[in-house]
Specification:
173 residues; 3 helices; Trna Endonuclease, Chain: A, domain 1; two-stranded antiparallel sheet
Length: 173
Amino acid sequence: MPAVSDYAAISHRQDAFSGAYISAICAAAGCGVDAVALDNDKVDYLVRSRLQGKVLNKPQIDIQAKCRMSGMAATDPISYTLDLETYDALRDVKVCIPRILVLVLVPDDVQEWIMQSKHALMLRHCAYWVSLKAMPPSANAATQTIHIPRKNFFGAQALQTMMTKIADGVDLQ
């Protein structure tokens, strides 16, 4: 097991990498993104679009970002364990801006998180999203395992589709 200082350094790298990944996806999708300075409501990023929909204009999504060192997804769905406070915040039906969890999966070796050449910068591996809105309360004392379908690939097209759904008054589930 790594020393506490090593673990903290890896945790900070994971936070920064997941933020860079989400920012890159937002840029490609034509969305604005702001990092939340103080994550006291289980929201890390605010994402906005200029889209005009059938019901709403300028839709927004709140994102809770997580990063796991596990390599590429090997199962479908992907299992991930959340603390209960985060689980409850993400399943809340009374929030006015839809919330999703974005799980960024990275290689076990930090040196393999990016590949760079004169022609490309590649972020490895990929991210998946899930809406936990209206999920049932947990019977557990501290954590809840959630399941993210691999079809919920978090990319620019998926983000644009989510924004269209929100603007058209459709839930993300």
